[in-house]
Amino acid sequence: MLLMLIELTQSIKMEYENKYQHVPAAKYECLLFDVDDTLYPLSSGLSKACTKNIEEFMIQKLGIEGNKVTEINRVLYKNYGTSMAGLRAVGYNFDHDDYHSFVHGRLPYENLKPDPVMRSLLLSLPIRKVIFSNGDKVHVAKVLRKLGLEDCFERVISFETLNPTNGSSTSDGEDSLKLRGLSSEILDATNCPCQSALPETPIICKPFENAFEQAFNIANINPQKTLFFDDSVRNIQTGKQIGLHTVLVGTSQRTNGADYALESIHNIREALPELWEADNKKSEGVRYSGEVAIQTSVMA
Ligand SMILES: [Mg+2]
């Protein structure tokens, strides 16, 4: 009889251990968010105004011909992720703070309204939340404040986080002028699919892998346990390659590299209800052990 009881207890113990070990660990430990056109919609008009300001900067500050700026900006943006990274790559020299205040300083921030729906969604998520933006810190802070989301994130990784020195404060010397002369050739090269012809940019920004790697180190992020939200297909694709789980925002069409696609960030709860279950999974584990403990005491 005693032997049977011991065997029974052991089998219950094994059952408990199996069940306990099978409680799934939380799939996501971190949510990583882009800001522009991700936390607010493209229809706000900020992106359009930003492009216009960049083109004005190129004309007024860099002396590029007005009839060429749209095409040059388009090609640089396409190949480098940001216009600034592209302009620096092809040899233009300028102060990063000047660029940001010119380009972002006059954006129609008044178009951004407090978003209490998004705020309560973010605050109810039981997972750490980090911002990862190519924008400068003043711009990111302003956008988050306008949306009423400034206290919803653990930390912000902005342009300055990844590019702590203010770029090129050196004089606009001969080398740069030579490169300017080459700009048109470089732009021709960017139309060919061989990316190796592109000069490197000194700017660290999405969609380049080194930007993601630095962000992971700085914010102690494990990409395998992180869900990344961005409106840029290229950023999503690099993110996926580097191990992140990905959500393309601004369209319901999933493209290569996107695990999920959301027309609006507001759809996050419908598309990803499991994000709110992180706590439930933990309590399931506790409940299992509780049930088994009761059975054991009855048997004994
Ligand atoms: Mg964006």
UniProtKB/TrEMBL annotation:
Domain of life of the native organism: Eukaryota
Residue ranges crossing the lipid bilayer per the database entry: none
Signal peptide positions on this chain: none
Gene3D superfamilies (alphabetical): HAD superfamily/HAD-like
Pfam families on file: Hydrolase
This protein's name: Uncharacterized protein LOC110412494 isoform X2
Protein's organism: Herrania umbratica
